[in-house]
Amino acid sequence: MFLLCASGESVKVFSTATEECLHALQGHTDLITGVLLRPSNHLQAYSCSLDGTVRLWDFTDGILIRTYSIGYPIYGIYASAKHEGVIFIITPMHTDTNSELFQLVAVHLPQCGEQLVEAKELSAVLSNISSNPAASAFGREGQYIVSAKPLQLEVYFFKKHKSYSFFLKKDNQKGGKNTFTCITCHPTEDCIASGHEDGKIRLWRNFNHRKEYTYSTLHWHHSAVSSLRFTPEGTNLLSGGVESVLVQWRYNQESQRDFLPRLGGAITHISVSPDGALFCTSHSDNKITIIQSCVKVSAVIQGLVKGDRIRTDLMIEPRSKALVLNGKPGHLQFYSLQRDKLLYNLDIVQQEYIHESGLEQFEVVMAAFDASGSWLATVEERKQKAPELELNLKLWAFDDQKQSFVLNTTISAPHEGRITALCFPHVSDGQTTMLVSTSRDGHFKAWQLAAPAHTEDEGPSWSCDFLGAYHSLVPECCCFSADSSLLAVGFQEVVTVWTPASWELLTTLSQPPGAVRDLCFGRLSCSKYLLGATTSRLLCCWNLLTCSLEWVTSMDVSLLLADPLSENMAAFCFEAGSTDLFVFKPGEPRPLFSHKALCSGRVTHAVFVPREVMLESCDEASQWLNCSHLYFLTQSMDLLTFITKAEEDKLTASSKQLVVSDDVAMTPFHLLLGKHRDQLENPQAESRLSVEPIRQPSSSAGINELLQMPAHVLPSASFLCSMFVQSLLISVNKPSEQNKEKEEEMESEKEEEDSDGEMESRISRPEHMPSGESGCAAPALTKEEVRELRRLKKLDHSWMKGLLD
């Protein structure tokens, strides 16, 4: 069974059994707002987008069938089997894209064979409706369509061509908020279920008459109901909300309920398979949960966990090369970039998170790994006000047996103020024994890994080794040099350089006015440079050999980072509402790469990810990507990266369908796959017996393509194996008789050589025949025809003699 999910500008097709992504249906140029199965063919699906198009897909093969151009942004799509050839979409009432007035429009899809079709027959059904797709639904096999406004329910009947409206008061007597949030309709009965902001569910009946309608109320959710869905038979009603609990109500027996709690983030959408065997919930943390009809989780598809905001930096865990950042509340997520899949969540806070707005809870705000991946440092805090701030600094050691991080040391109130920076020295060959933290209390601390004080202690732990300050200024950032021999700490407008060996202040660096908010040492041949971004929109570069300012340029740098495997540095600059990217070497005047208007808003999180294999052949504009990838996170929580032209071509080639060309080597797999095709191309060709072994090439494109196909789309292994083995066997009919005939022929060949010569001489033209009679002479027989005549000569015709007598 397949699961279709809108993901940005593409539709992802997942297998509900393996949780793997089978296809990514790409073609839209803006955000996809709806995905819908085609009522007349459940192997095809519609998708709509803000780009003003509706696309029809064959999602099993990942093929785009047709594109319908509407010309207006589309916010939702609906269809019914009763209205064949017609879809219903939500579009703005005015051409202005910022308009807050929307309408439901019926679109008659043209029936033609062209790839791109312009839909011209549009007719408005309902006006001034909500743009939320969950606020509209078809009812009772397409007889009517319902749309919910903030305090009004509107029902349009297609037979009557009339719409009835039902109103609610803003607040009821008990103070509840009656605002509609979502609706759904019973598949076979006249019943509408509506969800409301106060957590109540209302079941509307008898709405065929404007004044005689009734409704009953169900209540379990303590916050707004975000999604409702009836099962295909109409026996159950599913509801979900911020509590992350799926509630299953028995229709007409609402007192009987089933609950599935602790599903993760808040439930944003509920879907049911056409046969009712599976339920599906999507969550605010970018997760999809597949649930069996017996209310039991069967699979989880987890993408990059999306929270309210990312407080930590983007980090790479040195052991698994996984991307690490904030995940679920109180957790760090470890995400595999290669597999595009969540590996696991590490519980940092180790407290149950309560989904209630306004409740202050511990939050992971900072984290850092050492160079070898043996230690992880985290900072968690609660309460935003400084006098009531609670801080915890935790050190985690990697456990080889558990293959995860285990809590080693917890330091309560490590500083008197909020921690502003956290960093380990770059010691990759030896064991990490130091951690530095800076705080708004005006100090930076060096934490040292010390041996246990008593023999009965379990192991080493961390403690404060040095406390540093500079003229009561507040340190905002810190950074170790590439060889860890220097530590730079930015105290507002002053940059101080320390030696960790003796904690001696070596020098202070000056710059134009403005507080330093980011520091970064150069790498490799540029290790003598120290770069810093200031609040006065300046990027400064100091030469540590001369302790002087090397150069300064005017740019509003929101993020500065260095590639660990090269001299390259990346600066994300905010200008005119968008972010520009500059990649440069500190010792060269011109940037290696620049990209204007990379994305809207500020980029505050990015990371260089070292490649497993360094690229060799790369064009000049992309040489800065030879050693590492650059990933960055936008304000809309989209994780983006840069790729080279060669990598783009490789991705394009891998997305193509499996096509076996004519020049593929003759292999057993080719015989298995190309048997029917060859028979269609050469219907008169006869199979011939060959005793020569088939030469196996060192590498075959056909075999590679077949083995790269997903396992769930292939036949069973036993079926495929039997076909493959049969293709290797030599097909021989009646072997005993044929072998006997061959032996007789071989024995008689020598005995009848003379007779063969005589026969050939008789059928050949005599030399003394006149030239005029040569055209009437019989043509010479082939050797096979001679053998056939000889075989007929040996047949026993005595039975014919008996008939003649």
Automatic annotation (TrEMBL):
The keyword Ligase does not apply. WD repeats lie at residues 25-67, 173-204, 218-259. The keyword Transmembrane does not apply. Residues 759-770 have a biased composition (Basic and acidic residues). It is found in: Nucleus, Nucleolus. Residues 744-758 have a biased composition (Acidic residues). This is WD repeat domain 75. It comes from Oryzias sinensis. The lineage of its organism: Eukaryota, Metazoa, Chordata, Craniata, Vertebrata.
